[in-house]
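testing teh design pipeline on a random one, pls ignore if ur not involved
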C-alpha cells in the first residue's frame, strides 16, 4: 500500500504534465490540473490503508 501511495503521487505529476498541465489553452490546463489532483488524492487513502493493514498484522501476531 505504501508503494501504491508513492506511485499515486508520481502518477499525479506525470498525468498533470501529460494531460496539459503546462498547456497554453485554459481548458487543457484545467483538465490536466484536475485529473492530476484527482489521482494525487488517492495517496492518503493508500497510506491510511497501509497503516491499518500493519496494525491488523500486529494484532494477528499477538
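output:
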Amino acid at each position: 500500500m505504501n508503494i501504491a501511495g508513492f506511485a499515486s503521487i508520481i502518477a499525479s505529476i506525470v498525468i498533470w504534465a501529460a494531460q496539459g498541465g503546462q498547456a497554453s489553452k485554459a481548458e487543457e490546463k484545467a483538465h490536466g490540473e484536475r485529473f492530476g489532483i484527482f489521482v494525487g488524492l488517492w495517496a492518503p487513502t493508500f497510506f491510511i490503508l497501509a497503516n491499518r493493514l500493519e496494525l491488523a498484522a500486529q494484532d494477528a501476531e499477538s
